[in-house]
Amino acid sequence: MLNGTKNGKNNNNGNSLKVKLNLNSSDTEMFIAFAKSSIEQNIINTVKANPNITFYLFFPPYSICWWDSINQEGPGVLQRRIDLEQLTIELLLDYNNVKLFSFFNNFELICNLNNYMDSIHYIQDVNSQILVWMKNGKYQLTKDNYKKYLEEISVFYNNYNYDQLFK
Question: Whole-structure pTM over 0.90, yes or no?
Answer without folding.
Answer: no
